[in-house]
Amino acid sequence: MLIYQSLLENMFKVLLSDALSEPSDEEILVRALRSQWVDLHAFTRHKSLKFETPGFELSLIATGE
Predict the structure, then answer these.
(1) Mean pLDDT across the stretch 58-65?
(2) What is the pLDDT of residues 25-43, one digit of tens each?
(3) Which of 56, 58, 44, 48 is nearest to 2 (CA)?
(4) pLDDT tens digits for 4-33?
(5) H/E segment holding residue 3
(6) Disulfide check for 40: which of 9, 11, 44, 47 has CB 3.0–4.6 Å away?
(7) pLDDT for the residue 29
(8) Nearest-angstrom CA–CA distance, 23 and 10
(9) Structurally, how many domains does the chain consist of?
């Protein structure tokens, strides 16, 4: 989520491209996720970014309260 830039956010890419193509299914999905991402609480966003860390694995045992 930190490195994603849609075509609308990257104006140089839009201005320099010859013709805009239809967005891929993945682009549509990421746009939807990105629009919901900004509404998350800051702590939830912080914890969710751990899933993008290479080698991140969920613990097999739940701990805490």
Answers:
(1) 84
(2) 888 888 888 888 888 898 9
(3) 48
(4) 555 555 555 555 555 566 778 888 888 888
(5) none
(6) 44
(7) 85
(8) 14
(9) 1
From the centroid of its chain, how far is CA 55?
18
CB atoms under 10 Å from CB of 31, counted, come to 15
Query: Angle at CA 18, nearest 5°, toward 29 and 14?
Result: 50
- Whether 33 is covered by a domain: the verdict is yes
In a domain, 16, yes or no: no
Q: For residue 7, tell me if it sits in a domain.
A: no
Residue whose token pair is 């930190």:
2
pTM over 0.85: no
**Which residues does 39 contact at the CB level (< 8 Å), separation at least 6?**
none
* Boundaries of domain holding 39: 22-49
